[in-house]
Each structure stands twice: as C-alpha cells, then as structure tokens.
Amino acid sequence: MLFISDIHGCLPALEKALFWAERLQAKHLIVLGDVLNHGPRNPVPDGYQPAKVAELLNQYADRILAVRGNCDSEVDQMLCEFPLLADYNNLLLGGKRAFVTHGHLWNENKLPPLGSGDIFCFGHSHLPMAMWQNDKLMFNPGSITLPKGGHPPSLGHFDGNALRVLDLDGNLLQQASINEH
C-alpha cells in the first residue's frame, strides 16, 4: 500500500508519488485528504492543476481508498471517480486495525477509541511520523506537495511488516514495524 496525503492539486508531486506506487508495486493507494484544493492558508503550489490531478487519480480509482481532508468538498467529489468524502475509514494492516483519517477531526492529540497495538494513520499536519506512542502506532506520511518543519516532500509505504515514510527520491525518512508492540 502507498499512502499519499496533502496533494493540494499539485500534478508534478502526484506524478512522482505515482511513480513510487508503480515501483513499489503498491496494489492500493490510501489518499489521506486534501486532494485537489490548495486551501486558503496555503500558497498555490507550482504545478497546481486540480482538474488534471483528478483525471490522473481517476485512472487508479479501483485501487484508491480516500478520506476527506479539510480542503476537500462536494465539488471535488464531482471530479473524482472514487469516494473521497468519508471522514475516516478502518483497514486491516497485517492483521492490525488501522484508523485512517485526514487529521483535522481526529489527530494525535484527539484520538478515536483505539485498542492496544492499533494504528492511527493521518495527514493534515504535513509532518511525517512513524512511531509508537502509548501502545499505538502513529503514522503520518507527510505531504507530497507542501511539507512543513523542514522535511522534504514525502509519502508512506506499507510493505506488510512496517510502515515507512519515504521522500520522493525513495530515501527512507522514518519507519516503524507494526509488530513492535
């Protein structure tokens, strides 16, 4: 699985991320919100082409599980051929429950009910994270378009054993095994 968050309508960043989806043979794309719109607090990114971003993602519609970000709206859904307005979803990653959300409603400071060993996957902060905290695996792939905190643009990958954050050149930034706890 490949995790992409905070695309914010940037076509070149999405193209780089999808290159890694193919290279890593990701069967599924988990899109953690803020897909098309750059948002009023963010600068317009270079390569801002939201209609083309939707068109490109639609080619992967049968492989995408997406959740709504704070910049996503019903008009965005009109362009996307995959559901993108759910506030959260649940997945099984290696037999572990993963709560998947954007991060503006649920986040590392306001967690949903999770059991010991569960995984919390989110975006929104644009800060990469892969670490165990209080018996929960906290995972944020960062942003492919507008990274913060001095981090490079990044995405996430689940290889069946670990959740990894990679920069768009494929360098490992952070990693956590889902079985550490």
TrEMBL record:
SUPFAM superfamilies: Metallo-dependent phosphatases. It is an enzyme of class 3 (hydrolase). GO terms for molecular function: hydrolase activity; metal ion binding. Its cofactor is a divalent metal cation. Pfam families: Metallophos_2 (PF12850). Its EC number is 3.1.4.-. Signal peptide: none annotated. Residues 2-157 form the Calcineurin-like phosphoesterase domain. Keywords: Hydrolase, Metal-binding. InterPro entries: Calcineurin-like_PHP_lpxH, Metallo-depent_PP-like, MPP_YfcE, Phosphodiesterase_MJ0936/Vps29. It comes from the Bacteria. Belongs to the metallophosphoesterase superfamily. YfcE family. This is Phosphoesterase.
